[in-house]
């Protein structure tokens, strides 16, 4: 199975998650940053894993741009993840309101991929950072690898 892990990262946390997912996916997985993405990167992929940090409740502008330019993904499977703050750590009524209203990057990326014809292999996943700029919360990289192993078949 040919797997492409396409990611964007601001502070390096999403890149760490993408690397763990690619490692868990095995030898054939290809890691591609949004900045380096070309349509031919996914032309013969069976599974595309897409990840971005959540920035103002959306994917990064770089990832949003890539998603708009994707060719048809009919017949391809996709997995989607984001990195985000853990609302349990924030204890903020305002954040809870905005989170319920606007959601996270992963859900928006999943919608964009489905619109291009991809079939989601699992629900979008979110992995937690300890602070706005990171690092990743303890255990999250391991959880990302386990998520990948459970969903990449």
Description:
This protein has six helices and six strands, in the order E-H-E-E-H-E-H-H-H-E-E-H. It is α/β, with parallel strands linked by helices. The protein has a single domain (3-142), classed as Flavodoxin domain (Rossmann fold, 3-Layer(aba) Sandwich). Strands 1, 2, 3, 4, 5 and 6 form a six-stranded parallel beta sheet that branches. Strand 3, helix 2 and strand 4 form a beta-alpha-beta unit. Helix 1 runs parallel beside helix 6.
| End-to-end distance | 8 Å
| Unreliable sequence segments | none
Shape: globular
| Structural category | alpha/beta
**Helix content class:** 25-40%
Strand content: 15-25%
CATH class: Alpha Beta
Order of helices and strands: EHEEHEHHHEEH
Total count of strands: 6
At CATH level 3, the topology is: Rossmann fold
Largest beta-sheet characterization:
6 strands, parallel
Quickly count the domains.
Answer: 1
